[in-house]
Specification:
Blueprint: H1 3-46, H2 49-79, H3 95-103, H4 107-149
Length: about 160
């Protein structure tokens, strides 16, 4: 195996692995936000203190996992130093909305919080699609390098 192919394949393997890690973290964030959204619907319809508490716990957990996802995305971006078109991910709920959700437990506040959860979930899903596309390109590039290594592809084909 030529040193150039070996180095490039190693680079691609590291990038793919870090991208897969970021994707998995984002999937966990999406799942927590989906759960928070379901609790938010219940909170809007039959709002009790317990539903507000569970919804906010899910949002908080999504935020913790999102912090981990951001670190994983940063690692992925470092592995792809030549690619710079990533969406930054940050799950944020404004403090006033959280406090109002508990103390002014009203349908209006519940709807505002629900809108924030949906916005964050869409951001996560958009980032997941972007990572998925980049991973597909990396896997294709790796497959081409493997074929080149075996002499199946001439450089003119690329």
């Amino acid at each position: 195996m030529s040193a150039n192919y070996k180095r490039e394949i190693n680079y691609l393997d590291r990038a793919i692995k870090s991208g897969e890690t970021a994707y998995k973290k984002l999937a966990k964030v999406r799942d927590e936000l989906s759960s928070a959204s379901r609790w938010g619907i219940l909170d809007t319809i039959k709002g009790k203190w317990l539903t507000t508490f569970i919804k906010q716990r899910k949002i908080k957990e999504a935020g913790k996992i999102a912090d981990e996802a951001v670190l994983a995305i940063n690692t992925f971006e470092r592995e792809l130093a030549n690619v710079s078109n990533y969406t930054t991910l940050k799950i944020k709920m404004s403090k006033p909305a959280v406090l109002a959700d508990y103390f002014l437990d009203s349908t209006v506040v519940d709807v505002i919080v629900q809108m924030q959860v949906r916005k964050n979930r869409k951001n996560v899903e958009r980032t997941m699609k972007q990572i998925q596309g980049i991973l597909a390109e990396l896997r294709d590039e790796k497959a081409i390098l493997r074929r080149m290594e075996r002499g199946e592809v001439f450089e003119q084909e690329i």
